[in-house]
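Minutes, project check-in

Agenda point 3 was the complex the collaborators sent over. CS summarized: two entities, 370 residues total, and the question is how they sit relative to each other. Sequences were read into the notes so everyone works from the same version.
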Amino acid sequence: MPYGYLGLSSTKPRRKIATAHSGSAMSPPLNPELRRQVITIYKELLNLGKDYPQGFDYFRPRLHRAFMANAHLEDAEQIRQGIARAEFVRKEIEALYYLKRYRALRKRYDGA
Amino acid sequence: MSALRILVPVKRVIDYAVKPRVNKAQTGVETAGVKHSMNPFDELSVEESVRIREKRSAPGGVQDICVISAGPTKAQDILRTAMAMGADRAIHVEVKEGEDLEPLSVAKLLKAAVEQHKSNLVILGKQSIDDDANQTGQMLAGLLGWPQATQASKVEFGENDSVSVTREVDGGAETLKAKLPMIITTDLRLNEPRYASLPNIMKAKKKPLEKKTLADFGITSERRLKVLKVTEPPPRQGGGKVENVDGLIAKLKELGAL
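CS then shared the predicted structure for the full assembly.
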């Protein structure tokens, strides 16, 4: 099964980074609520990645890269789109895990 | 209409994605250092009980969802996962590593637990993917004298404590109707288990987890079955290619098919 289709194998900028607008010596985040949402979804994805078929070590750098690629975003609407994209990926990964297991079990127990 | 008190037994097994290896003594499979997770069929039963609550499909409502597991200390991780999925509380029955209970002992343990916690619905996985016994639910139903619906693919609630369960049988579906209290065992197509979210995992850490021993339930681990030998299945014999029709005929004659 191709696991790359989730976009994790690509390096294209897709999501935004948790640390947007919050560098150590920089001004306070433009939008604390959005920043919180980004961090939340990042953590959720990290947690999901622990079960990634190719391993966490494969998953984590790619996830990080995907978020870093969007770190520069400042427009609230674009950030929201990034979060929506991340939510979509989360759902896809959950569906991937479910299907992978379902197919494995069906093969073993249904003789299909 | 009585409120449901659901008991969901779960088992910690070697993860489905791991290829089990037979140990050197040929007495079982290697478990040390191998990834473990909740038995997939038990995930279905946890999910189903949580869905009954969320969808309010039971007219009497769901009062309690209790998960129970007998196993080594690490079985508590599995119980936490079940609570993160939505169970209310957990019971851990400490059983030493390598001293697994047989289905009959498990059924006796569950019977005692059902009586202690006044459960009126037990949803079990139809079998665990490690020993594939497919016995515990049936034995428990027998011990309790409750109706059982095994391999459920759909569960619906009706008037007066009645429950309709659709089960997959060869060549179609069969619908059983029974009254609470009852036993249901889950099949693969019952639902799609959820993935526990981080906030729910955190909340699950605060949910109550009772620690018990077999003696608390008046059970002793009795061994009725003896494993003689565990071996790997023979490696698959690869197919051979024939050059032409004559080759095929010769091969078939050689095998005695012609």
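Noted in discussion: Chain A is about 60% helix and 0% strand.
Follow-up: revisit at the next meeting once the mutant set is ready.
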